[in-house]
Predict the 3D structure of the following.
Amino acid sequence: MTYSTGSQANPTPVYQDAAVDLRLLSLNTEQLQHDTRRLFPIDPESQGIGGLEGQSHHENNLPKPDGGKAAWLFLTGCCTIEALVWGFPFAFGIFQDFYSNNAPFAGSANIPAIGTTSMGIMYLGLPLVFAMLQRWPNIRRACTVIGLLIMCAALAISSFCNTVWQLILTQGIMYAVGGTVAYAPTIIFIDEWFIQRKGFAYGVMWAGTGGAGVILPFFLEITLERFGFRTVLRTWTVVLFLLTAPLLYYVKPRLPLPARGAREPKPVKLNFLRSSSFGIVQVGNILEALGFFIPSIYLPTFANLIGASPLASTLTIVLFNIASVVGCVLMGTIVDRLHVTTCITISTIGSTIGVLLLWGLCDSLALLYVFCIVYGLFAGSFTSTWAGVMKEVTQRVSATEPAMVFAWLAAGRGVGNVVSGPLSEALLSGRPWLGKALLGYGSGYGPVIAFTGVTAALGGISVLGRRVGWI
């Protein structure tokens, strides 16, 4: 400890430099421990002094995490893959409208199954793909290239389709398989590239879907009517490849694989699935997802109901997606600083109030636009809390891979995605509240508004888990 040169009777300790040094030491120690666990999964005590020297040599040669040119280029590549892989199926509603009203698919049944098949496989297939990548880590980087090629092939082949079942096989199943294979490695790699700013990195990456949701609907709306689906699908195949392929060079692991990891399959551990910390969050995650997708399905038609033009109706989805981009980044930043249940509570309260008050009492287009922004900020950022869930679960359950936690959270969200469509149709059957309630609740959409609000509130059930010490 050092003292100032003031009065000897009242020496003033100078703690600031020491505090800064301790804080930096803490950050560097956490980074060292993280990288050492990845590079040297065996017991450090068995390595002796030589092993520790080897660790230090490897650490000094590794790219810098949480910043630097390589980390930001990696994150740019991940955000682009997120936008292009997920943005296209999320915009399927534009294709569905075109297929339903134009040859050769006009009047065909099962057109909606193309989109639901694609989204269902991408969400529900993630645990299987992540298990494969955990067991054979040496194939991870190759999967990004293979997945991109499968997606491009799927879109190109679908441009030659003449029946709905052919589109289900190509634009639905084949595209989803390629997208899942290309996307999964990015989640594993991001855990290596970002340690202190992990939530922020996930938030930026997941904002990519919202960004695509701003651009793609307008692009598809204009080009499909002007050029037809065959030309649009072929054009998008080229765009997808040209935008993604150059960035794949930067989408790579920061840490080299252990020599034995490249030769021996690793066991896939799913012990966390039985833990109360994961279970309570997953229940809330599924409940929230049951209602989350409903506004994006019905907002344009609700806007039409209150007198909006087609362009003004499309703007509801655009505003929601813009707000989601901002919300994901903000929530990702917050989850690095606050407990995950606090972040979930923020998302839950904002979403619930937005749905039940703003949408439920909506009687004008201006108020509907306000709801779209509020819902995008709070509900659209719910998945950014997953970074905190992954951290919490891996700390409580030993030998848990963060990527596997993400995979099962995504699968839970997939359940909501698949179920919400048929469920919302059942709620709207017969328009039971039409003319029997006030404002938005009496518009015919009252049941889905109420259901969305209730599920948004139930998404915060993990707060109860924190009260009893589960999380």
Notes: The radius of gyration is 25 Å. The longest helix spans residues 164-193.
